[in-house]
Amino acid sequence: MAKKKNSVQSLIGFERFTCFGVKTDKAEIAFFSVEPTNISVLSGTNIDTKIRYLMTLLSTVPDLEIIALDSCECFDSNKVYVKKRLQTEQNEAVRKLLQADYDFLDEIQVEMSSARQFMFAVRFRCEKDEQIFNAINRVDKAITEHRFVARRMTKPEIKRMLALYFGTSISGEEISDIEGSENFELGVSENV
Questions:
Q1: In the prediction, which pLDDT does 181 show?
Q2: CB of 139 within 8 A of CB of 119?
Q3: What angle do CA 185, 154, 55 make, to 5 degrees?
Q4: Distance in angstroms between the alpha carbons of the first and the last residue of the chain
Q5: Would you give the DSSP letter of residue 4?
Q6: What are the C-alpha distances in Å from 32 to residues 46, 70, 77?
Q7: Residue 120: how many CB atoms within 10 A of its CB?
Q8: Quick check: 3 pLDDT over 90?
Q9: Mean pLDDT across the stretch 49-53?
Q10: HSE (side-chain half, CA atoms, 13 Å) at 43
Q11: In Å, how far are 22, 37, 67, 101 from 143, measured between CA atoms?
Q12: Is residue 75 within 8 Å of 82, Cβ to Cβ?
């Protein structure tokens, strides 16, 4: 019996992108990117109202999932490494450079601490394409009616989100559909 090859794709259950989102081994998932609200400028009453809208939306669409991610890579592991090096380094010049690196990473992380990405996700287990399409439209309408600004995520946006989540991209740059394809000319050759 041939041994099945394990890949990251199979470990997370990812099968393919669809016109609605992502197909996994358990469900098809559609993602909506939600425009965040700066609650630091809202009054207590407005915050309560926003919370009530969210609660009502979740009761209207009980299968709606909320996702909150950093919209760029986290530097915690880098800071831990530099901190350990600082504790063991004997050379004062190197210690100064390490401290400068640590301070820089800390500054970047503080600047990006408010850079969050919020999404709603809906899973479809065995519905047909037409049912998924209709359900997505109903969810989109419910989101709008509850005063959230959201739009369905495109394939490049989903790829960026997955790249940031799995740590394969620091800034979320575009990832090709076929790994390494940028290194080859994939044009049609002419027979002479």
A1: 65
A2: no
A3: 160
A4: 45
A5: P
A6: 23, 16, 30
A7: 24
A8: no
A9: 94
A10: 3
A11: 20, 14, 15, 43
A12: no
3-state SS assignment for residue 168: coil
138 or 35, greater pLDDT? 138
Q: Of 140, 141, 134, which is closest to residue 152 (Cα–Cα)?
A: 140
Q: Looking at the DSSP assignment, which residues form a beta bridge with residue 123? A: 29
Query: Position 96: which residue type?
Result: K
Query: Is pLDDT above 50 for 47?
Result: yes
Q: 């740059």: which residue's tokens?
A: 173
Class of domain 1-72+116-174 as given by CATH: alpha beta
Number of Cβ within a 10 Å radius of residue 150? 18
Q: What is the mean pLDDT of residues 44-48?
A: 94
Whether this model's pTM surpasses 0.85:
no
C-alpha span between 33 and 121 (Å, rounded): 9
Q: Which residue type occupies 22?
A: V
The type of residue at 72 is C
Q: Cα dihedral sign for 143, 147, 148, 151?
A: positive
The two tokens of residue 73 are 């890579």
Integer Rg of the chain from CA: 22
